[in-house]
Amino acid sequence: MIPRTLYSEDHEIFRDMVAKFFEKEVVPHHDQWEREGCVPREFWRKAGQAGILCCDMPEEYGGGGADFKMAAIVNEEQARLNISGPNFAVHSDIVAPYVFHFGSEDQKKTWLPKMASGDCVGAIAMTEPGTGSDLQGVKTRAVMDGNQYVINGSKTFISNGQNCGFVIVVAKTDPDKGAHGTSLFIVEDGREGFARGRNLEKIGLHAQDTSELFFEDVRVPPENMLGQEGQGFAQLMQELPRERLMIAIGAVSNAEAGLQWTIDYTRERQAFGKAISEFQNTRFKLAEMKAELALARVFVDKCIDLLNTGDLDVETAAIAKLTTSELQCRVLDECLQLHGGYGYMREYPIARAWADARVQRIYGGTSEIMKELISRTL
Which regions in the chain score pLDDT beneath 50? Predict the structure, then answer.
């Protein structure tokens, strides 16, 4: 691949630490976590102690005080090692920035240190059973009653739903105002009326806890709102580029890993008296994938640089998310094919990666939504 110039020596030292942590604390246990459908809460505390959680949050709030590139490295190494269970991206790269950018000083001091230590897992509840990617169409309501808001509604496909100590809930405070009537609320675990549904069974990502969440007359004080009433949709739009870039970062790193596994496999696997890698079709397929991934890597690295300086816009993030998630699925499918029947066996990493990757084109905004966002700039 083209040599990368994005990271400094300090970044690479951090990468080495992250990789060793994952290889010791995750890889040996991941199969069991997939069978159980959840990552143990104690592991999150180990990740916090290792400095992997919220590493680019300021030190005054318990974070590592590093730049965004450190956060990107955590995502890259997790994708490279094909360990999809711990959903650090939602916790550190979606929920924590919402609290940091829009929360009050009290909210920051309350939640960010607990998130950085792993004592509290964060989740965000956007998607509803009938809305999907239509964030303007959420039906969950938050109505002021006396001196508190009363939240009613349900959410689905919520990552970290079983483990979360609090969840940011997207709700309508004024349905008549459309997008301008949306607000964000922190709902803590243990609030009366807040209930977790079942841990959802998915095609892939078997070790990730993904849940239905229910809110029945959940009362929260105004202090639990993030920012001001009616700002929720604008807040979502501001933070979605980082979420989509993280998906792109994972997509390229995981596809690169899948390509390397396949190169290694085709060199060892014999067919018709010679290694599969000696067939022209195999070599050409591998060459095509390498070329496409080289282009994607350069673009995503540029996007990492842009986000690190605060210059990544909605359109560029959408382009990154669209192209890399589609490429990831295409590459892993080609790689699985080159594994033959063994590619369909879950004991081979390519099979698990192939199944895990399919959702990349859906969450964070579907490929169709990305095309819509891009088309608006034409």
Answer: none
